[in-house]
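Homework help board

Subject: predicted structure for assignment chain

Our instructor gave us this sequence and asked us to write out the predicted structure in token form, then describe one feature. I got the tokens but I'm not sure how to describe them. Can anyone check?
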Amino acid sequence: MTEFEKQGKLYYLPIVQAPDENWTMGATGRITPRMIESMMPPRNQEDSIILICGGDGMKKEVEEVLKEMDYRNYFVFN
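My token output:
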């Protein structure tokens, strides 16, 4: 855990759609608004940003969920 995580300034949510039996690091399946609400900073908080990386389909799906939830502070890595 980094100092930023300890201070509540960094949240990391790894998601795997089809994990193997050894997966223990994060969520499974598809991203949901509930996952975002439980793990990410409050909507449009001035000093926060959500960074999105992964496969093209996953990035698009996460961006769609964030838009539906009215998040504006996010960046998608291409």
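Reply (TA_rk): Your tokens look well-formed. For the description, you could write something like this. The mean pLDDT is 87. That's the kind of observation they're looking for.
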